[in-house]
Amino acid sequence: MPFPKADKIWLDGRIVDWDEATVHVLTPTLHYGYGVFEGIRAYPTDDGPAVFRLREHVERLLRSARLYPPLDTVPYTADDLCEVIVGLIRVNGHAKGCYIRPTIILGYGEIGLNPLPSTPQTIVASWEWGAYLGEDSLINGVRLMISSYRRIGKNTIPPAGKANGQYLNSSLAKVDALRAGYDEAIMLSEDGYVAEGTGENLFVVADGIIRTPPLSDGPLDGITRASVMRIARDLGIEVVETSLVRTDLYLADEVFLTGTAAELTPVREIDGREIGPRGPVTEAVQTAYLDAVRGRIPAYRDWLTVVDVT
């Protein structure tokens, strides 16, 4: 089912109607996936909708662009794009929060594999969006399978960036999982270590300790990942970055996924092996995270950018 439309989209300095936000069919990004993007959420708070870690997401977008010239010639600064996002939320009247998708693509100019003659275009869209993996997933958890598709190698496409084309890797794994009756897939690195989900970081709980793959094993340096790690440590829970293999998943006491879209989602089953219902560690960290993004914990209020939409 298509996601819900909003009224307006920001397209290279112009606010345009949703259905009028178009690009040429011969943009190289359409043909080769040469572009970068971010996923950001705004949550309802007592003070109005608040964007979660806006600055960090925008800065990562621009870092991703640096990995893919000429996207690095985009004429907008982090300050500019933060202002654009706040303005678009206000224009679309997202009082209950929303999902935000900024992207930098190649404009019309050259259809070959040389991207350098093309000029970057920047687009920001926002719309209302619920739970990515289903409304009951945050409590009841999801079922995962380990995909036969490996996570892209460190010297294949830079895993530090969020490039449009690299998510073909994730989509193939996702489709296989859905066709097999699962909700999501886990991808291993070229070396056989656990990397991440198709669009989420992964955490394992065993003996009261939270473990997550190091960036050297290929996961995205997730902003939600870093936030959850800080929250867990603030709760007195030990968090360790260490390489994991599939048996670490099968024998875990608890497993959960994190990401802008997935938020913090428990895992109840992997490859037909029951992990169990949402465990106490997962529930404690999840509760604190969901309270933090809604402005209920003063220690994390600096993560939020409140938008006045009145």
Strand content: 25-35%
Number of strand segments: 17
Number of helices: 8
User: Mind summarizing the main beta sheet?
Assistant: 9 strands, mixed
Poorly predicted ranges (pLDDT <50, ≥5 residues)? none
Mean pLDDT: 95
Helix content: 25-40%
Q: Radius of gyration, rounded?
A: 19 Å
Short account of what is shown:
By secondary structure, the protein is of the alpha+beta class.
Describe this structure in words.
With 310 residues, this protein is α+β, with helices and mostly antiparallel strands. The protein has 2 domains: 8-127, 2-Layer Sandwich (D-amino Acid Aminotransferase, Chain A, domain 1); 137-293, D-amino Acid Aminotransferase, subunit A, domain 2 (D-amino Acid Aminotransferase, Chain A, domain 2). 26% of the residues lie in helices and 27% in strands. It contains 8 helices and 17 strands. The strands form 2 sheets. Strands 8, 9, 10, 11, 12, 13, 14, 15 and 16 form a 9-stranded mixed beta sheet that branches. Helix 5 links the parallel strand 8 (142-146) and strand 9. Helix 6 packs across helix 8 (280-293). The radius of gyration is 19 Å and the shape is globular. The two termini are 30 Å apart. The mean pLDDT is 95.
